[in-house]
Amino acid sequence: MRKAIYWLMGEKAGRTIVGTWNWLWGMPIESGGKLAVAVAEDSLQSMQEAVQKLAHAVAMQEGSYKTAKSKYESKVKELQTFEQQAKIAQNGGNPEAAKMAMMRVIQTEQILPKLEEMVLQAEQAVKASKDKLNRERMKLETYKSDMQNMKDMSEVNAALEQIAKVNNEFDIGSAKNDFEKAKSAVERRNLGAQAIAEMSENPQEKLQAEMENMTMDDEVSRRLQMLNDSGPKQLPQ
Q1: CA dist list (Å): 236 to 229, 233
Q2: How far is the CA of 233 from the CAs of 15, 26, 229, 230, in angstroms?
Q3: 86, 105 Cβ separation under 8 angstroms
Q4: At how many degrees (to 10) do helices 95-169 and 34-91 cross?
Q5: Neighbours of 9 (CB within 10 A)
Q6: pTM above the 0.85 mark?
Q7: pLDDT tens-place string over residues 125-175
Q8: DSSP sequence for 15-52
Q9: What is the rounded distance in angstroms from the CA atom of residue 101 to the CA atom of residue 83?
Q10: What is the pLDDT of residues 53-70, one digit of tens each?
Q11: Exposure of 101 by Cβ count < 10 A (0-12 exposed, 13-18 middle, 19+ buried)?
């Protein structure tokens, strides 16, 4: 799907569309979760493809440079050949042939500097392209390492989130708080019930009961004392 979108819309526009698509599905890259790793993998794949295209272009560039260089070297050999032909014709008493060969020498000498300049430019371009390719390959290796680190970090994050989830699910702190609240509520109600019971009791009745208890205690003590004073009763003879 990604390649089809990139092919239809171009890489830059395609990446924007894919990123927007992911955002619309509620999976923003900023979340740092699995989507971020997936987007990073997608980007890394695009970079790998770009480096491969660059390597192919550099290979073609180098092939063109070798062709140009070969052509230049061929022209140099032609110049040497024409010079040799002119010299042989001149020494052999053939001025027309010598003249023709010398004309070719002159024509070749006129084009050689241009060819040499073009070859040098091609050589510099190829060198610059190779340097760029090497830099991009090094960057790609760095990104590959970062990708692996990102995956490892994402797995660690997932593990930590799972640990936090378990801790939250089995956290008895809230239960302790609820227990303490319930205990306090029961104790407060007990105190309130005692206060209500004390307030509902009639003070006069309580005083009367206390007085009756005191009277009963006095009577019991008096009777017991009488028993002690009278001593044991004598049985009749």
Answers
A1: 20, 9
A2: 124, 109, 11, 8
A3: yes
A4: 170
A5: 14
A6: no
A7: 999 999 999 999 998 888 888 888 877 787 777 777 777 777 666 666 666
A8: HHHHHHHHHHTT--GGG-SHHHHHHHHHHHHHHHHHHH
A9: 7
A10: 989 999 999 999 999 999
A11: buried
